Amino acid sequence: MDPKLPWFVLLCPLLSAALIQLVLRRKHSLAAGISVLSAFAGLLAAVGIWFSGMPPAPLQIPWIQVGDALQVPIGLLIDPLSKIMLLVVTGVGALVHLYSLVYMAGDESKGRFFGNLSLFMFSMLGIVLADNFAMMFIFWELVGVSSYLLIGHWFTKDSAAAAANKAFLTNRIGDFGFMLGILLIWSATGTVVFGEIATKSAAIPASLLTAGVLLVFCGAVGKSAQLPLHVWLPDAMEGPTPVSALIHAATMVAAGVYMLARISFLVTLSPAAQTVIAWVGILTAVFAALLATQQDDIKRILAYSTLSQLGYMVSAIGLAAPGAAMFHLFTHAFFKALLFLGAGAVIHGLHHEQDIWRMGGLSKRMPLTFLTFALGYLALIGCPGLSGFFSKDLILAAAWQYNKALFGLGILTAGLTAFYMTRLFVVAFLGTPRSESAAHGHDGPLAMTLPLLVLAVPSVAAGWPAVQNAAMGASYAAALHHLHESASNIVIILATGAFLGGAGLSALIYSRATRDPISIPPLRSKLYVDEIYAALIAATQELGAQMASWFDRWILDGLIVRGLSGLTWGFGYTLRFLQVGNLQAYSFLFGLGVVALIYLAVLR
Amino acid sequence: MLNLLLFLPLLAATAIGFGSPARKTAIAASFGMLATALALLFQYDRGNPGFQFVSSVSVLPAWDLKYLLAADGLSLLLLLLTAAVTLSAVWVSPTDPVRPRLFYASLLLISAGAVGAFASQDLFFFYAFHELALIPTFLLLGIWGTGERHTAAWKITIYLAVGSFILLIGLVDLYHALPSEFRTFDMIKLQKLATQQVIPAAAQARPYLFLLVGFGILVSLFPFHTWAPDAYASAPTPAAMLHAGVLKKFGLYGLIRVAIPLLPAGAEHWAWLLLILLVGNVLYVGLVTIAQKRLDQLLGFSSVMHMGYIFLGIAAANSIGLSGACLLMFAHGLSIAALFALCGYLRSLKPGLSLDGFGGLGRTAPFLGATFGLAAFASIGLPGFGNFASEMLVFFGAFKPAAPAGSQLPFQIATGCAIWGVVISAVYMLRAYRSVFLGPVTLPPTEETKAWAAAALQRLRLPLVLLLGLLLYAGFVPGNLLAFVKPSIEAMLPR
């Protein structure tokens, strides 16, 4: 392989972002064109990497070096894991760029939008290609800030500004653990490079390893919005819908899973950490699926669904099945991006209507959107034969072997997923229009529908065994095959049962409903987690800040400092000097002091 | 060349005194300083970690007292910082302040004092130049300040005078701790002595404590920090930029240059104290910062808070931590100068700078919004800016400090607290950014506000491009700056 190719993939969007931010912010169409061009160039290069072998030598340049003690390179790692992730990121990325041309056509800050989109691509590709912890952390933070900028794209809207802040801060809390974990692992191995850690991992003491892995896992909890740091993702839907599709569904939020897969060699060495990770994942999956059943905003339903699916993937990492996690990440990226872009087409066609109860009957007015959305919907709920079916079943199979309670929750999630997605689908697309805008909905132009059509293909086919073998690379494919073989038929029967049961029940309830016949206030209020957190923050941080501020002003500064300095008042006449601003007086005072003290010093 | 860097601002200040046009002379001199500082960096031989550009004039041969200018990589980095911030501060200064000559001459004198302090390798001049720089700082605050300027000026004067006094006692004590045959003010000789460890470990604790507290007060080490926020809030913008950005670094520079190399056992003895105090800087002051309701006070407290990270690198006392501390001095100086410059411009719109009084300014003044965003993200340690790379070095250094293997846990706990501080600083900085620049637009789109927003470009573009450009440079290729600093640090550490 040409070693320039990975560098090209990484630097292409950086160049585009820099160019747009520095000179093209106001030249909207040119900015958009360059951004889209860079995305497609990246996709082409990623395909090139996919078809070529491994690089002849490590692609590393030194970045920070302090002797042998600390070496942080900027290095690109090309292996089956990064290859598949490259395809996902550049593939979905390019389509979302194309789609954004239409979706953001009338936006007055289109240049800024595309500049930030390119910045995001750069950051995300940095995570994918990073060959060491420090570099991954750098790009980890950068995706955080590009996500902040994109969520807050419409920053004069208060809710958007608030959501952007919330996303950044919640992620920083996770990154606190991530950084500590990196330091801990570095202190034990003396290196931050994944390959070198792998060769030294056996020497890490068990307790330290568990602590290190769990701390690093905090980073994934933040980025992949797992319990208890999930609160930012639903709010992040304030961002433009293409952003939701690319960043908050297909790629960035999956970075936590990708990172865990990258260090799965460490995770598997610590059974305690594995247990924690598996349970955090599955609990997030059930929790988010439950909340999704009572949401009315089309994007929020999809956001909770993303949380839930990410929970599956995280859980799979804890179940020692990183292959299954990555496979689900792979298929999910396509169908979830498809669903979001479909939702965006609906929102666009209905003039910014997001409430599913004010939609209805869209199947006839938006046939292309309807058709592709239906495929994405079936893939997500695990309809046999579509991509989600294969990947989700592998995770359930891994759970079945590991712990039956965990498996039970996985099946429950599958049922709930079928339930809430069917609710969304039936209410929004079938029946009759329930609002003026729904009655006049229409498909978008070609640049909008083309990405939907393209994404529909992998949404259907990405799970087929042939594709699976080709996509996942030899090592993962073998593991997946083994997992598939070992899964008993019960897994498939139960999973299919959950799918049929959830979808059937939901169809029964919602097919003729004009408003939600079920109302469970706690679920509708997201189980009050936001309120609890707000109270917690008020009780700790805000109260602490007020107390510290009071202490600083009245005790430390007021009583002690002014008290002490009050004593010297009579001697200094300082105040008088200051009020006249007398230069000579100062100079004299200081000069005198210095001379006197030096005199004392030397003659003592 | 170092002489040129020192005498440019001094001569310019004199020329202004004799009637040369104040602003033009000051700007010309600061451009000259920046060019000189860059030329020094290019001429510096990185293969040779020792002092270069040595020029020496004996003043009192009996005491080995010399006017001795010389620079190593560490000094050069700070000289570049001084030059860059000086130019920015002069540029953003008002075109027609009252008593313009005294105003611009004072700015140049602060700058000259800082250059002198960073380039003098003689303890007496090292100390005296810093004192020299403080005087015009007080003047600027007392005469051209805003708000409670007299109280603030009074407080900073007493505070820093006390700090300088304690520092002086520490320097004297250090001088006397040296075996009599080694006593000298010559810091180049002292550095050589440091590598041989001529001061017995038992005699190091007392002078180090004096130095720590003395230098610490000058750097607003918790709990000696209360002068800083008020002073920065009341000071005229260029004075706040120069003091917070450059002059305050003197204390940190002194600890790294004098205290840590000569008194390593003293540093180890008092490490617990420094760790507690620096955690106070990060967590306690961090919380205080969150509670601030005015932008200038918030920035003042945030600057105090960020000193904690530099102290952490110093506490680590190894080459990773100290190199990180040096880079962070550079990066922090640039980012706080940029923030104060912007804050000063916002003051011209809303003198009270109350955070509630703004909103949606990013729409009215996109240039200010974008640059404030960059500077704010730089200051909270976003990768791509120098602050991140140096904070990362500090964290790595402090996690495996020079302290013996058994006593590293307190350092690791302090590192954990410092990393939590990264969350805290994001809380207050994003809150400030949001309340000023995001949210619904509150400013009526009148001709006046439009003119105000447009004038920002002319007033702030050059300084911000310079400061942010250097920050990005330090963030993207920290290795280039590290190549200046690290060998100099390693040359002073005991082997």
Largest sheet entry of chain B: 2 strands, antiparallel
DSSP summary: helix tally of chain B: 21
Shape of chain A: globular
The shape of chain B is: globular
Show unreliable segments of chain B.
none
Report how far the terminal alpha carbons of chain A are from each other.
74 Å
Number of domains of chain B: 2
Number of strands of chain A: 2
Using only CA atoms, what is the Rg of chain A? 28 Å
Mean pLDDT of chain A: 87
Structure classification of chain A: mainly alpha
The first-to-last residue Cα distance of chain B is 32 Å
Q: Radius of gyration of chain B over alpha carbons?
A: 21 Å
Query: Which chains have the largest interface?
Result: A-B, 70 and 81 residues
Number of helices of chain A: 27
- Secondary-structure element sequence of chain B? HHEEHHHHHHHHHHHHHHHHHHH
The chain-level structural class of chain B is mainly alpha
Give an overview of the whole structure.
The complex is a heterodimer of chains A (604) and B (495). Chain A is mostly helical and 604 residues long. Chain A is built from 27 helices and 2 strands. Chain A has helices at 4-24, 28-51, 80-103, 110-129, 133-151, 158-189, 194-200, 206-223, 232-235, 241-250, 255-262, 264-267, 271-292, 298-318, 322-349, 362-365, 367-380, 387-402, 404-429, 436-439, 446-461, 465-486, 489-510, 521-524, 529-572, 574-580, 583-603; strands at 59-66, 70-76. In chain A, strands 1-2 form a two-stranded antiparallel sheet. Chain A is globular. Chain A starts with a helix and ends with a helix. Chain B is mostly helical. Helix content of chain B is 75%, strand content 3%. Chain B is built from 21 helices and 2 strands. Chain B has helices spanning 2-17, 22-43, 73-92, 100-119, 123-144, 149-177, 187-196, 205-218, 227-234, 237-247, 249-262, 264-269, 271-290, 295-316, 319-347, 361-364, 366-379, 386-399, 409-437, 447-476, 478-492, and strands at residues 52-60, 65-71. In chain B, strands 1-2 form a two-stranded antiparallel sheet. In chain B, helix 1 (2-17) packs antiparallel against helix 4 (100-119), helix 3 runs antiparallel to helix 10 and helix 8 packs antiparallel against helix 11 (249-262). At the A-B interface, strand 1, helix 5, helix 6, helix 25 and helix 26 of A face helix 5, helix 6, helix 13, helix 15 and helix 18 of B.
